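Before the break, one more example. Copy the sequence into your notebook; we will annotate it together after we see the structure.
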Amino acid sequence: MPLLQREPPSASRSALADGLPAVVRISRHFTLAVIETQPSVSEPHPAFAMTATAVSKGVTPAIGALPIGWRYLVARGDELAVVTIREDLESGQHYFAEYNVGRFSAATPNVIRNAKRFAASEEADYEMRFLSVPAIHIATIWLKHAEGVADRFIPFGPGNDSLASGRVYGVREFMDILALVAMASIEMQLRASDER
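Here is what the structure looks like once it is written out:
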């Protein structure tokens, strides 16, 4: 089945339209050759985050992931960035939060292609989402199963060595690996604070 992609809220698109011109003007990433062209915006997908503590306790993204906003691919010529528009859950306001040209941004188109290829080979419907666990440097495309029974995850690379970049993981295997990484990270932080 084709990958399901929700339309972002109009407030998110407005925040993107308002913030992008200023960022592009001051960005060192976009070269002068493409600075005058309009950026193309594609692949909007909702973004979610989890804490390392929740992951270490085996909480799945379906239960413990919090919505944080929307991500967009922004291209000018051959140059690519990922923009995150955050949503304040209390006020409902959307704001320009991040303009990223780093390693996860560069990997995003390939991971999205893998997600679309996987979804096309399945009979079930999947919605494309972004999931991060910032404390343990995990970024992944989360393929949310329409009926909630068979979520899949495709990690970005380079990232954590415990996960293979671009590979499709089932929820159980993915969460088992993440729980070990999160527990190790929490233990290391506790040891470091004890040594102070």
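Residues 10-194 form one domain. The longest strand covers residues 66-76. Try to locate both features in your own notes.
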